[in-house]
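Changelog note: in this version the structure field was regenerated for every chain. One regenerated record is shown below for reference.
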Amino acid sequence: MNSDATNELSSVERTEQLTWELLDGQLSESALSDLEGLMRNDPECLRCYISCVQLEQDLKQLFHGEDAKGQSKSNMRLPGFPPINLASDGNSAITN
């Protein structure tokens, strides 16, 4: 995406874009700082991040047959933020 298109994105859209880049292992250090700032300053951005991470985990569970006991559930951690417990029952929680 070119920089003009990036500038036209809302903060939530930018959060979504950066989150998918993070989950794909393609996020640069400067973009990670941008993502952290968006989530710190806007609760909607944090909700967007959590939704994307939850979707990623749901898709992994669906397509990789992870067990119902949550053996492979994941704690996603973004530097500067508490881990997000992605429970297999669909109840995400930010843990300390």
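Spot check on this record: Residues 43-64 form the longest helix (22 residues). Strands lie at 74-76, 84-86, 92-94.
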